[in-house]
Every structure is written in C-alpha cells, then in structure tokens.
C-alpha cells in the first residue's frame, strides 16, 4: 500500500490504467459481440478520455470516500495489510463501477444517438461491469499492480 501522497498518486495512475484498459476492452467487446482485434482497437481509441475521467473521479471523489468508509466500518489502521487492501479495493470498485458505467452509457448515447436509453443502458451495465471489475481488482489487477509498484518503488524510496 502507498505510504504517502506521492506514492498514492503513482499507485493510482498504475491501477487506474490497468482497470480502465481491461474494462474498456471488456465493454467494447460486449457491445461489438465478442473479443476481437477490432474491439481492442476500438477500446484503445476511447481509452485516453475514459482514463482521464476515471483518474479524476478516483483521485478527487471516490478515493477519499472509499478509504473513509473502509477505515470507519471495516478495518483499523493497524490491521493486516492484505485485509486493508481488500477492503479498500472493494470500497473503491463499487462507486467506480457506478460512475464508469454511466460514462459508458453516455459514450454510447453520443456515438449512436441513443439519448432516450441512457438510463437503461447505465442500469444494465452496472451489474455486467461489477461482476468483472471486482474479481479483476481483487485477483489480477490489485496483486499485479501492487507487485509492480513495490518492485519499481521499494518502501521508503519515494519521498513524501
């Protein structure tokens, strides 16, 4: 887990990149009827704006609230690092799925002119995204990014 604001920003950049990229491929593949080179290309084209939006939501809105909730109701600062990581990750995934599912619904509405269906697209995307985002975060992206982060930035090497 990051130890200061600078580490937290670096970690967030890495985690957000991983999650948004994989979830973009997943969502575009759902929309295009399956995983293909074309769906990965389409996801990559929409990635920069989605990434910037997700970073802003994560850094300025979700992170503080999720950590506040986790440390108020689920964990204590002295708890096991893995328990803290899992609880904070779960608390981050829920609001990020809700927000990014709305982003995706709006993206579809803009590209296909389906403004009257934004609400239903959003509501149907939330469970589809949640069932992929939570395991992705807990089993793949979280452990991978934590490992890469600590390999690149050993504890105490990034100054506050």
From TrEMBL:
The chain crosses the membrane at residues 9-30, 42-61, 82-106, 126-145. InterPro entries: DUF2798. Keywords: Membrane, Transmembrane, Transmembrane helix. Pfam families: DUF2798 (PF11391). This is DUF2798 domain-containing protein.
